[in-house]
Amino acid sequence: MTLSNPFGLTGSGLGLRRALFPALQAGIPDSINFFEVSPENWIGVGGHPGKLFRSLTERHSFVAHGLALSLGGPAPLDATYLQEVKHFLDYHDFALYTEHLSFCSDEGHLYDLYPIPFTGQAVKHVARRIRQTQDILERPIALENASYYIQPPQAEMNELSFINAVLSEADCYLHLDVNNIYVNSVNHDYDPVKFLRGLPGERIVYGHVAGHDLEPSGLIIDTHGQNTIEPVWDLLAEAYRCFGVFPALVERDSNIPPLSELLVEVEQIRTLQRHYADCRNIHDVSVAAA
Prior knowledge:
TIM Barrel, disordered C terminus
């Protein structure tokens, strides 16, 4: 199937962190076409930070990337929280809301993102909660493929099959994190390119690139605290080759460098987008001439 993308996102973006506010007040660089924030960090924020944030959302495109919804969790969805998210999205006129394909709560918050068992029952459970979320928010959402460090118990299918089954059952969009593909491919020993090519490209709304930490044991931890490494850039390039150009942003959550250093990575996204857009245009012209 082919989904229409109603969100209007284009180009390259950056995860907005408060440490970047002083530099951004001097002007938004042309290379930043949109920003991403987690609503949990901004709902209810007032005072000077709230005014600065509002001044940005009034003038620039934003997407919301949630952390706390726990779509795969066993406890009922927090409808009160979702109403707060809806008000936040409406007030700031955000283009899109995305969440992780994982769970982070049961009787209380677990303060981490955990993998959902790769089972048919879990597919139906998560898809039902996605539909409930979309009904409350009154907008479609997208799911991010999540990193994980232990194999989910009682697996009936592999990670790729599970992601595809959830997206199909819920009929929702994909928020493609190529760093998470790389992290999982190393930690769980699979081919990241084969995995990427198995995803439904027509559902992608935007992508993430990020860095990670390498433990002495060889385990990769998805910290978003380092520069993006070459194999992750290669995966983004492969995604553009396979699926065409889509928006993407740099995700940096810790060890945040000056804005000028982050812009180097934002510009690298733009370079890849221009290259593969040109390649697609040349291909289209060649096909038409033939």
